[in-house]
């Protein structure tokens, strides 16, 4: 396997100073987040002005909270329906996997709806929305986070792309 460092350095050298600084900052931030090979994400953010870091943080946060938050089978004790199923002999691990899969589907459907965004007509009322990156001060940057549902599986912190949800 070839060393990606020379290609990275060559690409960095092709950038102007603000782009180079942005790329180096992004690389440090992705490294802090544990992303092993963030080069494509960095190039996309710097060259295409797409908020890849914000996308990554949002999707990874949803995995860790809304989906993997249900990984502990003990949490099933909080759900009356799960308590009934366990009392009827359901396997606790299988039930925990089911709850995580349902959580994944709910997150996916929500992201898909958010991605649809504009001009939605419900009962004759039109409305629209956009998910947007914000700066450190919380104000919108003007860069929309789109296509979120398309990358949800790839943000599985386990690296399994959600395969364990459907076993």
SSE layout:
Blueprint: H1 5-13, H2 17-32, H3 39-48, H4 52-67, H5 80-87, H6 92-116, E1 120-122, E2 125-127, E3 132-134, E4 140-144
Antiparallel strand pairs: 1-2, 3-4
At a glance:
With 167 residues, the protein is mainly alpha-helical. The protein is built from 6 helices and 4 strands, in the order ααααααββββ.
Properties at a glance:
mainly alpha; two-stranded antiparallel sheet; flat
> What composes the largest sheet?
2 strands, antiparallel
Q: What's the end-to-end separation, in Å?
A: 33 Å
| Strand numbers in spatial order across the main sheet | 1-2
Classification by helices and strands: mainly alpha
- Helix-residue proportion: 40-55%
- Globally, the shape reads flat
Low-pLDDT windows of residues? none
Q: DSSP strand (E) fraction? A: 5-15%
Question: What is the tally of beta strands?
Answer: 4
- Count of separate DSSP helical elements: 6
- Tell me the series of helices and strands, N- to C-terminal: HHHHHHEEEE
Rg over C-alpha atoms, rounded to the nearest angstrom: 20 Å
Overall mean confidence score, pLDDT: 92
